[in-house]
UniProtKB/TrEMBL annotation:
An example Gene Ontology biological process: lysyl-tRNA aminoacylation
Binding sites annotated in the UniProt record for Mg(2+) 2: 430
Reactions performed catalytically: tRNA(Lys) + L-lysine + ATP = L-lysyl-tRNA(Lys) + AMP + diphosphate
Assigned EC number: 6.1.1.6
Name of the protein: Lysine--tRNA ligase
Gene designation per UniProt: lysS
Length: 512
């Protein structure tokens, strides 16, 4: 297709918004004049950031004979008679936020024709290259006084107004535009990158091996969650997208890897809200000869290392009622048992032996929705999640769960009615989980068989019986501790935004 050929039938172009039509006409005019609207390369000797650093000492009205070529996106333009002003913005990186720099075009410097071309052809959002002397305007603004300019990339769609507040819906649906116009969006992306980099650096320093495991799986397991189904044409078999990283990482541990981790996307075909996404990023790590306390220490170090990289161990949290709290990551990370925590909240003792009927009455009393078929374990977890968890603002390891909570966790060494597992709750929300991992293949088979029976009975979240995993476990695994840390929720902790904001391109319901 030639540069002059429209990418859709001409009759459909007429249906485009007026600004898009005008910009398409400008593109066509540039091409017809032999001035590429999208050249392969343009003049660029300095980044905008470099100009600001190198000539930072220029005073108002001072001019140099230093000629530079800069390029960037036009985010502001003011065209007057003989002098035009524009602000260019360059791309951002981990160390640079997206620097802006003023360029000036005067009749005396660029000539009448090119000044007229600028006024006629350049719109907000275009990328341009400007070559000229470095000067400081009379108002003290560091600038490049253009001697010549060229189009680098013609924007066919207009930018959002820089001074208007974009709705969250617009931000997440048009993330490309959001990143251009909002410094906060760029900062958030860089913060997320810093967090993932910190986690990898910490684990690397502790001699953890990063591995990759299959996204497409024959059997879904490692968590209780509803999977996404798909079909592999090459083998003619149905498969699922992974709901956890656990089972393959444990195979690596069986094979002799003593410390492994993976940070990757997992997929759960469940509800979507301010703290849940169907597609999200999880860190899982496993350490031989460790237990739930070992990995609790590790996850605390991971979070604190992220905090130190970001320069703050105290973060602000606003709860559902709009009350502002200061979370002190530098303080004590409390351990709280599920049953003692629930007992304290409801003002009566709740134990693993509390009858189902009493728990159902408690749920009714506190208006907690429940199913009449739920066993006591499930009711206790639901009551704790509704009544206690939202009140845990400071870092808390919620521990001593009933066995139904985690089918892959080891029975508690001192109480057979409990398991050795914790959830890390900060700001009223679960951020991570950890276990003394179950390595007894006989007990593991019993639990997975119970899960598969539940799945056969219609429980879409129950795990399936994974014979390959059990065969690996029967080969012999060392005692180990394992953790899972939600990366998106960790970013939420440090930024105070919802999960859709933390994911660069979140899954969204199509617009009508």
């Amino acid at each position: 297709m030639s540069a002059q050929t429209p990418d859709r039938p001409s009759e459909q172009i007429l249906d485009l918004p007026e600004q898009v039509q005008v910009r398409r006409e400008k593109r066509a005019r540039l091409e017809e004049a032999g001035q590429p609207a999208y050249p392969v390369a343009v003049a660029r000797t300095h980044a905008l950031h470099d100009v600001r650093e190198q000539w930072a000492d220029l005073e108002a009205g001072e001019e140099t004979q230093d000629v530079v070529s800069v390029a960037g996106r036009v985010v502001f333009v003011r065209n007057t008679g003989k002098l035009c002003f524009a602000t260019l913005q360059e791309g951002f990186s981990p160390s640079r936020p997206g620097t802006r720099l003023q360029v000036m075009l005067s009749l005396a410097e660029v000539g009448a024709d090119r000044l007229a071309d600028w006024k006629a052809d350049v719109d907000l959002g275009d990328h341009v290259s400007v070559t000229g002397r470095v000067v400081c305007s009379r108002r003290g603004e560091l600038s490049v006084m253009a001697g010549e300019w060229s189009m680098a990339s013609k924007a066919l769609r207009p930018m959002p107004n820089l001074h208007s507040e974009l709705s969250e819906e617009t931000r997440v649906r048009q993330r490309h535009a959001d990143l251009v116009v909002r410094e906060e969006a760029r900062d958030l992306l860089r913060t997320r990158a810093a967090i993932t980099r910190s986690i990898r650096e910490t684990l690397h320093g502790l001699d953890y091996l990063e591995v990759e495991t299959p996204v497409l799986q024959l059997v879904h397991g490692g968590a209780t969650a509803r999977p996404f189904g798909t079909h592999l044409n090459a083998f003619g078999i149905d498969m699922t997208l992974r709901i956890a990283l656990e089972l393959y990482l444990k195979r690596a541990m069986v094979g002799g890897a003593e410390r492994v981790y993976e940070m990757g996307r997992i997929f759960r075909n469940e509800g979507i809200d301010s703290s849940h996404s169907a597609e999200f990023t999880m860190l899982e790590a496993y350490v031989a000869w460790g237990d739930q306390r070992t990995v609790a220490d590790l996850v605390q170090r991971l979070v604190l290392d992220c905090a130190d990289l970001l320069g703050r161990r105290q973060v602000t949290h606003v709860d559902a009622e709009g009350t502002e709290h200061t979370i002190d990551l530098d303080g004590e990370w409390r351990w709280l048992g599920v049953y003692p925590g629930l007992s304290e909240r409801v003002g009566r003792e709740i134990t693993p032996r509390t009858p189902v009927a009493e728990l159902q009455a408690l749920a009714d009393e506190h208006e907690v929705e429940h199913d009449a078929a739920w066993p006591a374990d499930k009711l206790v977890m639901e009551l704790f999640g509704e009544l206690v968890e939202p009140t845990l603002i400071q870092p808390t390891f919620v521990c001593d769960y009933p066995p139904a909570a985690q089918p892959l966790a080891r029975p508690h060494r001192s109480d057979p009615d409990l398991i050795e597992a914790w959830d890390l709750v900060i700001g009223g929300m679960e951020r991570g989980t950890g276990f003394s991992e179950l390595i007894d293949p006989v007990i593991q088979r019993e639990r997975l068989t119970a899960q598969s029976l539940a799945a056969a009975a219609g429980d879409a979240e129950a795990m399936q019986l994974d014979e390959d995993f059990l065969a690996a476990l029967e080969f012999g695994a060392p005692p180990m501790g394992g953790l899972g840390l939600g990366i998106d929720r960790l970013v939420m902790l440090f930024t105070g935004v919802g999960i859709r904001e933390t994911i660069l391109f979140p899954l969204l319901k199509p617009e009508q």
